[in-house]
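Dear colleagues,

As part of the handover before I leave the project, I'm documenting each prediction I ran so the next person doesn't have to rerun anything. This entry is a single chain, and its sequence is reproduced below.
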Amino acid sequence: MLTSLRIQNFRSLRNLSVEGLTRVSLLVGANNTGKTSVLEAAELVLAGSSPTVVTRAPTRRGEVNVRIEDGSVVSRLEIAHLFLGHEIKHRPVFRVEALAPERCFFEGRIEPYRPQGSATYFSPQATEIPAPTFSNDLDAPLGLTVESDRFRATSQPITDQGLLPSTHSSGLIQGILDVWGKLSSPTHPHVQFVQTSAPDLSRIRELWDGVVLTPEEALVTQILRIIEPDIERIAALSGGPGGSAASIFIKLKDSDQRIPLGSMGEGIHRLLVLSLNLVNAAGGYILVDEIDTGLHHSVMVKMWRLVTEAAKRLNVQVIATTHSLDCVRALASLYEDHRELESVISVHRLERGAEKNITYSADELLAAAEHQMEIR
């Protein structure tokens, strides 16, 4: 389980230590205090068995530069936003260190790049991984170098506009990166990231495929019943011969209709995504940005109860963020009724520019809620 993070020069975070993380941890704080960046930093060290993990957050955020070059549309990931100050000309470095439970790290840096050093192919059976070579020439092209405790340093070329998708999504370079990851870390925990915006239907179907006809399918239905008690079944149906798109459908009690997921409201959609990610993260981690998105305050206590139960049963660590005081108070209310959760839940406040989080234990959280203290 992840218990602490130290984040340096990553996005808006110059030097932040986050301590005291528990099975279910809630990050709170004002806008632009770095809550989402903490989740992304955690993703790097937890899911970083391959260098390609560094492209996940920029892709989700839409940090893409689209240009017309030689008559073609070319998209590049703007990796400068990963570094404090959003610039790369001074060759910045970011680093994330963690206890999970052993010490681990993930580092990204901008430095001179020499193509022949990183483009050397080697077979998956190789026992020695050729290290990339770099130039000290100040006028040499720059590269994004990433390194972790699970793979050796590897670099990809960049331009002023960013990292070419071809260097992180397909082709020979991708094969090399994958081999580095496999040689360095044959196994790694599942890490699911739930962003505030809804994933596309294909992603939901992919998550559903990991749940259907397993004992945890009932858990997904149980969580959805927080909002709609009459939900009986969920099903993913393929597109019809007439070209209709595949979709997710809900079956209600005492009804023969198949209701499309999109007709059930934002709350049902959010809970479905949350529950599917929980199940698919079994034995690993789920990172949830603004966990209360689309949920009315009246259902939040039930949401937290099922999330904590699922986290314990599936051996999942949950780290979530919120802006909602109702969400915080709902977690406190859950603890008031279930004191056995004392070592399971915690709340962590982040303040802009601070170097440490402020941790509220379960008892402190309850006391703050009872006295209507502002802890966000």
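The two ends are 25 Å apart (CA to CA). Confidence is low (pLDDT under 50) at residues 116-135, 166-187.

All the best with the project,
I.
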